[in-house]
Design brief:
By secondary structure, this protein is mainly α. It starts with a helix and ends with a strand. Helix content is 54%, strand content 11%. The protein folds into 3 domains: 3-97; 102-165; 169-236, Arc Repressor Mutant, subunit A (Orthogonal Bundle), CATH 1.10.10. The radius of gyration is 17 Å and the shape is globular. A 3-stranded antiparallel beta sheet has the order 1-3-2. A 3-stranded antiparallel beta sheet has the order 5-8-7.
Length: 239
């Protein structure tokens, strides 16, 4: 992840309805007018609407140049199978685009790994360790958590004080599972152990399904190789 990309903040609550609408536009299955109508209904305030549209643009409509092909392939998966849930696709774009989103996902994944839940205060504390103790950090973390809850990845309990994992979405070894694995690598910014993709904290809302080694080997965008210690790792073929 480049320094410039890391500065971009996921600073709006993005409900699943809007995320999927932007994906449908990207896939050529809906018009910008339909997305605009949803935004108008969700945000009577023009500034709020513009800020949410900026996040949606970066997710699906105006991705960074280095993510153009990745975004197009994600939209193609949805276009080929519109019944595919938008959650893993939007999660993958958020991971690849917003390092802030990925860091929240990573922290939640780690904290909930043992018992399935954690306190939101602990997520905020760990985000502050990385991004500083300031109101903006706390607000953006809340926006990410609220979005993740809308997408069905987590549940917020006790007035938002406690976070639990929702049941994992089984991707059944489908093309979206391979594409999402690539998103994990793009967030990490380095090669990862083949067996570590499915257990990565940022992948906690999903079960890839099937053999990770086989799934990863089917993608021309990924390269599976041995490292100096004889372990099998996977990396972007053209980083």
């Amino acid at each position: 992840m480049s320094a410039a990309a890391a500065q971009i903040g996921f600073d709006r609550f993005v409900p699943l309805e809007l995320a999927e609408a932007a994906l449908r536009v990207s896939a050529g299955l809906a018009s910008l007018g339909e997305l605009t109508a949803l935004l108008d209904a969700a945000h009577p305030s023009l500034p709020a609407k513009k800020k949410t549209r900026t996040v949606l643009n970066r997710l699906w409509l105006e991705p960074r140049p280095d993510l153009l092909d990745f975004t197009a392939r994600g939209a193609q998966i949805y276009r080929d199978a519109p019944s595919t849930t938008a959650v893993p696709l939007t999660w993958g774009m958020a991971l690849a685009t917003y390092s802030f989103f990925g860091r929240v996902a990573e922290i939640v994944g780690r904290l909930t790994a043992l018992h399935g839940d954690c306190r939101s205060a602990e997520v905020h504390r760990r985000m502050a360790e990385t991004y500083g103790e300031r109101e903006g950090t706390r607000r953006m973390t809340n926006m990410v958590l609220q979005s993740q809850a809308s997408w069905g990845a987590i549940k917020k309990l006790d007035n938002g004080k406690r976070i639990t994992r929702a049941p994992a979405i089984d991707l059944h070894g489908s093309p979206v599972a391979v594409w999402l694995s690539e998103a994990c690598l793009r967030y990490a910014g380095r090669a990862l152990p083949v067996d570590g993709i499915s257990s990565s904290p940022v992948m906690f809302p999903f079960a890839l399904g099937g053999s990770a080694a086989y799934l990863l080997s089917t993608s021309p965008a990924l390269e599976v190789r041995g490292d100096g210690a004889g372990n099998r790792v996977v990396a972007l073929a053209n980083p």
